Every structure is written in structure tokens, then in C-alpha cells.
Amino acid sequence: MMRQDWIDMKDDLAITRQCELCGVSRATVYARQRSKVTEEDDLLLSRPKWPP
């Protein structure tokens, strides 16, 4: 188990304090929270042309 997994976003203890106690940077915790959103247009543009 990684230390980042110890951080609980729903806990009463502030995320800043949890990070200090675990020795994890807050940037690492927040970077893991972002989900990549892919637009349908991006998928169409990145699709290979067929036939070549």
C-alpha cells in the first residue's frame, strides 16, 4: 500500500494535515483526483484513417 492511499478526502482531519503526517505532498494527492475527460471530437480526430 502506498502512502498516498492513506489520505482520505472525506475525513474530518484536513487534507493538509493528513499529508504532513504521511509525508506526502498535497500535489500528489490532488493530481490523483483528476480524471481525464476525452471529448468525442478528440477521439474522431485521433482515429487512424482507413484505408491508408
Q: How would you describe the overall organization of this protein?
A:
With 52 residues, this protein is mainly alpha-helical. It is 44% helix and 0% strand. It contains three helices and no strands. It has helices spanning 15-22, 26-33, 40-46.
Keywords:
single chain; 0% strand; mainly alpha; 52 residues; elongated; 3 helices
Shape estimate: elongated
Radius of gyration: 19 Å
Helices, by number, come to 3
Class of secondary structure makeup: mainly alpha
**Residues in helix, %:** 40-55%
Which residues form runs of ≥5 with pLDDT under 50?
none
Q: Which percent range describes the beta-strand content?
A: under 5%
Largest sheet: none
- Distance N to C terminus: 46 Å
**What is the chain-wise order of helices and strands?**
HHH
Give the integer mean of the pLDDT values: 79
- What's the total count of β strands? 0
Q: How many individual domains?
A: 1
